Amino acid sequence: MSRLSRALRVTLVEYFKKTSLNGFGLLYYNRRRRYQRFFWFLFIAAGICSASFVVFATLLQFLARPTITALSTLSVSQQELPLPPLTICSSNKLSRHKLQAYAKQLAARSGNTTEHWLQELQLLAGYFRANSVSAEAATRLQVALGDNWSADVRAQLLQLSPSCASLLLSCHIDEVEHNCSSLFRLTPTIEGNCCVLQAGNITTEHLQLRLNALRDDDFYLPHVALTAAYSVHLPGWLGRLHVSAGEFKALQVRALRLQADEQLRSYPVAERGCHFADEAAELVLCLPQCRLRAVLAACHCAPFYYSVVGQHNFSYCNLTHTACLQQLEVNEILLPHAHAANWSPWSCVHCLPACNDWRYELRQSLLGHVQPLETKLSIRHGGQRVPLYSQDGLYHWYELLSNVGGVLSVCIGCSFISGFEIVYFMVFRLWQNWRH
């Protein structure tokens, strides 16, 4: 037997005689009682296997899902809960009276009649839904309009859309009447030019609106349904509903709060699944910007509802780009996993929700009916107790250490002292036994 082997054997015997690990000493003292020694060996082996299984399961769970989300309630004051950017869109995208005046100008500058131009201007539906018109006919109309159609398509469509003053008959905040034009602004959106609540710091319990449901200013656009007079939108997928003429509806704005612990900043973005405010744009801004990049790459222009002034060296899309925009819409349906130039939500996997954010949901109830020429909305918050989704790390380092240490202590009686003992005997004592 070599010198090192003899030293290792002596060290192991010494370790089993003096170790603080429960049960390990019995492997030495019961060396003449084979059955008892075999029993303690099985018992200790089972403890080691159990401890190893639980520790590895805990570590794998932490690596697979390092964060945890808890649901509770949060009490907020009315001042802390302003109304979100409420958007009211009319089903009528363009004003008939404004288009009639525009058609008269076109007729005066050409040999065609006003009725002819009104018929042709129905192709403006291509701005709101590219697949609703013929690409060839839309291109011919754009060529025919020539200099009579502004290169600033965004401003041109705003001029031809119904104004917020004509759509909103009255606005009351806590029973006090306000000028609707000072509260809402006509803003291009993917739903058309809509009235968007601008005063984001309005903290009110009650907002009441009377909407104009008179159809005398409606201009027919092909494949644009007019079943509901208005649609109401909030940021997010749960904030959308339709309101018909003559209805008196109560809308309840229900908020929920997303909150993440600051310590999650040290986690990779893919693990926590959200962005902090200083890391990236919010989801409601990121997805449109992602789609805009795809449209710019494919068609070299931007749809009118994107604001590209001072951001990109591109112009707004007009009717000559209808064929390209139609192809993009087809690709969204048929090729959901296509290349980034063929946009789909799968192309924007980098767009993640904000770690700290407010989300809103719209719920409606029918209170009754008013005269069929108007629509009435009563908008309130859902209450001052809102759901709170708190995201935190599954374990902090001291919690993970405590869990692992507890398992090792229960199963095999192991602690930091036991670890130091192994180092002491296998290094210092082995060295001394080897020298002697």
TrEMBL record:
GO CC list: plasma membrane
Membrane topology: Multi-pass membrane protein
Alphabetical list of Gene3D superfamilies matching this protein: YojJ-like
Keyword list, A-Z: Ion channel, Ion transport, Membrane, Sodium, Sodium channel, Sodium transport, Transmembrane, Transmembrane helix, Transport
Chief localization: membrane
InterPro entries associated with the record: ENaC
Protein's cellular compartments: Membrane
Transmembrane domains' residue ranges: 38-64, 407-431
Leader sequence residues: none
GO molecular function list: ligand-gated sodium channel activity
Keyword Transmembrane helix: yes
PANTHER family linked: AMILORIDE-SENSITIVE SODIUM CHANNEL-RELATED (PTHR11690), PICKPOCKET 16-RELATED (PTHR11690:SF237)
Family: Belongs to the amiloride-sensitive sodium channel (TC 1.A.6) family.
Protein name: Pickpocket protein 11
Lineage per the UniProt record: Eukaryota, Metazoa, Ecdysozoa, Arthropoda, Hexapoda
